[in-house]
Amino acid sequence: MNWRHLLCLSTLVLLALLLFLLDITLGSVSMSVSEVWEALIGDATQPVQREIVCNLRLPRAITAILAGVGLSVSGLLMQTLFRNPLAGPYTLGVSSGATLGVALVMMMGNWIGYALTGEWVMVTAAIVGALLSLLLVLGIAVKVRESVSLLIVGVMIGQMAGAIVNVIQHFSNPDTLKLFVVWTFGSLSAVGWQQMPFLTAMMLAGVIIAVALMKNLNALLLGEQYAGSMGVSLKLTRFLIIVSTGLLAGGITAFAGPIAFVGVAVPHIARGLMMTDDHRWVLPTSALSGAVLLLACDILSQQTPHPLPISTVCALFGAPVIIWIIIKGSKLKKRNFANT
Length: 340
What we know:
Layout: H1 3-25, H2 33-41, H3 47-82, H4 94-112, H5 119-143, H6 147-170, H7 174-184, H8 196-212, H9 214-220, H10 224-229, H11 234-256, H12 262-274, H13 279-301, H14 310-339
């Protein structure tokens, strides 16, 4: 038993709980801790307080935890599968497929003269788009054996979907274009209590698959040939990784819009905290670190007169981490070259 690892995980749990409480306490409307508590237990003297805490802040904070866990775990899966430090949850084009689904629905609204912008319409369109993109990748994965080739295929699918979205944007009217751009910013506030069970189910299913694959993921760290020699079914493992990533990244994109950088940056933070690549420790650390990061970003985004898009705040944290990864990798290559 590694007490350092347990201490780190315990600290992250406590930090997540603290930030969760801060997230439902802080906001544009000033409230004391006692007022928030009264609203939570149903004894608020003013119904407005209960509405703000229970129907606005609480679902947003829960969504931040779910999104942080889902994006971080899916990012870790992609980095392990492709053995690429810059791979992320949207590498397979799942986010691009969801974005294309939403763009098509909005464009169809222009064609039929009726705005298709309802909450469930947008969510359904995003899920269908992500699902079709995932099925396309799965179909190609049957024919492609090398993970690097599959990575390139995923990127190309994302590029094609992005190109179609650009064409749709070109022919959209300004009002529709504005709604679409706002959706692409991502929003934790878009998930209410009606959508919460569906998002939770998708995140839970994706995480359960990831946890079940921990032994195989550790074997993949040493290469696919070694993993195969250890009795790991590469086809099944790759299939399950893609399904888990589709559930996690696709679910978050469908309900909260695309949220960048978290899935790429957090797994590296987790490895740095644990000082190991063992998924038995890195996976739960990634999940907790992602929840902590998104809760912190949500708190910061709410401290301005007009709340900032969550993707913008996440980029301020994630971009420096990615730059550090590139610089560190470059130094490591130079050191290895000098030793040869």
